[in-house]
Specification:
The chain is of the alpha+beta class. The protein is 38% helix and 19% strand. The strands form five sheets. Strands 3, 4, 5, 6, 12, 13, 14, 15, 16 and 17 form a ten-stranded mixed sheet that branches. Helix 2 links the parallel strand 1 and strand 2.
């Protein structure tokens, strides 16, 4: 039993003697962000999820931390202002997961789209098409203005065709100009959700968190739960927060408070093994309009090319996956934009999809549904003494600001006051992260001198885990950092042992899909999965039957939801792609 696990087990053992102020149902980024905020204010919180932390919609974004350039068209200036601020704050508070992303917009005309944009701005339900240079220039200037608070990145540039094709050589020569502005990307969103939960547990010794925990009943103000190990518990909270994302209405039904708050849309993405494309992007994202007018994007992610996304009405979050027509759509869209490159099904190494928990809407186009957030309250009734606050909508980038707004609402209802802000509070491995390249070099050298590990390896672990890297290197494990996984030599047995023992792992899928990026970066092979399984089985006391079932579960998930059948041949493909494209920051 690890120290962290033992501590949490003791907290649950003393649960009957504790007052639980707030129960948060759903441990995606919004729920986890709120949990951290409330715990930091001294509120006794319990957060539970029916699956793993960060395993639902929060694991299926475009992996961007962005201000929402397209929201300017619909007049959502407040959302853009908040999003750009939160983007800037995340670059500072989570530098191990979030980094700047220069973004290129190809422009195909000078004046198109102006009147359509004006109609949209004044309430038209038809999205503008073929945005021209004048419109894009105005939009980028506004974007710079809204992003001026806590600015950490350069302002936009506007370049003519000759310069644009020099900087982005594979883009179609049909363009007349290009715009370059700065947003950000998040390399490990699932880990960041986990770290938010951990920060909450560390902020308040009475805070509790449980993954793979199911709500079994809600009777006269008492909520009962069943955990993965078969144990049960119940609590009587003063207030409940429904942070279940696309499952919100189902959870409210289970709480005896039926609602119709969610009208979600499906967003799918694919990952391409395309070294030539990755090199040609030169560290940029291309944010472009597909032939049908929808916005698409492509950028380098851990040595692969990430392409997204769709926006399709859907209400089945348990079975959502990227379908064949969506893959065809992505390949056709990037082929049209980058005609000098080849795109084919053989390059797709991974796909994923999720349901955005958008508010119910009668908008004619999914793209016109607001990405803003709200927190409607269902007041108590005679048979339900607690109020229910539902977290509707929102986007990955604004989770901290959303959490702060809801935390203030909760504090007011509990007659408590805020003791600290999370605005400049580092997250997880972002604590004490080196502030610049000089400080980073000094940090790496100091750790290398103390541990004997190679500086390059320390820098890689710092990129992956932040300053938690030192705890991993210092961990007294029977496994060494020199022992590497089959097919994924950039991951070690020591890392996996640390993750399994220290990070509330219940299933093998937690490791490969969320605590690491092994699956999404195409590095997972059958032999590598067996290596990870053996380490997990040793650490968690799994039987041979349990281990076999866990391996089978991962292979089934990969095939059904991510379009890939695991085999050992993938190891060669992965290594070749890495060698050709250059090292990823994995």
């Amino acid at each position: 039993m690890t120290d962290i696990a033992a501590d949490l087990k003791q907290r649950f053992a003393t649960l009957p003697d504790k007052d639980i102020d707030v129960v948060i149902l759903g441990a995606g980024v919004n729920g986890a962000g709120l949990f951290r905020d409330l715990a930091a204010q001294g509120i006794n919180c319990l957060i539970v999820d029916k699956a793993d932390f960060g395993s639902g919609t929060s694991a299926a974004p475009s992996r961007l931390i962005h201000g929402g350039l397209k929201y300017l068209e619909t007049g959502e200036f407040g959302l853009v202002a908040q999003s750009t601020l939160e983007r800037n704050l995340l670059l500072q508070n989570a530098p191990h997961c979030v980094e700047a992303l220069p973004t290129f917009i190809p422009i195909f005309s000078w004046t198109r789209g102006i009147w359509a944009a004006l109609r949209t701005l004044t309430g038209s339900t038809t999205a503008p098409r073929s945005r021209g240079a004048v419109l894009i220039k105005i939009g980028l200037a506004l974007y710079d203005f809204f992003g001026s608070r806590n600015r950490v990145m350069p302002r936009h540039r506007f370049i003519l065709k000759k310069r644009a094709l020099k900087e982005m050589p594979y883009v179609t020569p049909d363009i007349v100009a290009g715009g370059i502005y700065y947003d950000a990307k998040i390399s490990r969103p699932e880990r960041l959700v986990y770290e938010l939960v951990m920060d909450g547990l560390q902020a308040n010794k009475n805070a509790l968190a449980a993954n793979f925990t199911t709500l079994t009943s809600s009777v006269e103000g008492r909520l009962s739960f069943s955990r993965a190990d078969g144990t049960t518990f119940s609590v009587a909270p003063k207030l409940v927060v429904n942070a279940a994302g696309p499952w919100i209405d189902r959870v409210n039904d289970a709480l005896g408070a039926p609602s119709r708050l969610i009208g979600g849309t499906k967003g799918s993405h694919i990952l391409l093994d395309h070294p030539e494309l990755v090199r040609g992007l030169n560290g940029h994202m291309i944010y472009f309009e597909a032939d049908d007018g929808r916005i698409c994007l492509v950028y380098s992610y851990l040595g692969l090319a990430l392409v997204g996304s769709t926006d399709i009405p859907s209400d089945d979050p348990d079975n959502v996956r990227c379908e064949e027509p969506e893959i065809d759509y992505f390949l056709e869209s990037v082929q049209s934009l980058l005609p000098g490159l080849r795109f084919g099904r053989d390059q797709v190494v991974y796909s994923y999809s999720g349901i955005r928990p958008l508010p119910a809407s009668d908008a004619s186009s999914p793209g016109l549904i607001s990405r803003d957030h709200s927190a409607p309250v269902i007041e108590p009734q005679s048979d339900r003494p607690f109020a229910i606050v539902s977290l509707v909508g929102g986007k990955w980038t604004t989770f901290r600001g959303f959490a702060e707004e809801v935390a203030d609402l909760v504090l007011q209802r509990l007659n408590r006051t805020r003791s600290q802000s999370t605005k400049h509070l580092a997250i997880g491995g972002g604590h004490d992260f080196p502030a610049n390249s000089t400080a980073r070099g000094e940090w790496v050298r100091a750790v290398a001198k103390r541990t004997g590990a190679a500086p390059g390896r320390i820098d890689q672990l710092l990129s992956r885990y932040g300053t938690t890297a030192t705890a991993i290197l210092d961990y007294p494990s029977a496994h060494t950092d020199a022992a590497r996984l089959a097919g994924a030599p950039h991951y070690s047995a020591l890392e996996i042992d640390w993750i399994v023992r220290q990070e509330f792992v219940i299933h093998l899928s937690d490791v490969v899909f969320r605590r690491t990026t092994l699956a999404i970066e195409g590095a997972l092979t059958m032999q590598g999965l067996r290596d990870i399984g053996a380490i997990a089985a040793e650490a968690l006391g799994w039987t041979e039957q349990r281990l076999a079932a866990e391996i089978e579960d991962v292979t089934a998930i990969m095939s059904k939801f991510h379009g890939r059948r695991l085999d050992d041949a993938a190891a060669h493909l992965f290594s070749e792609a890495r060698t050709t494209a250059g090292p990823a920051s994995g």
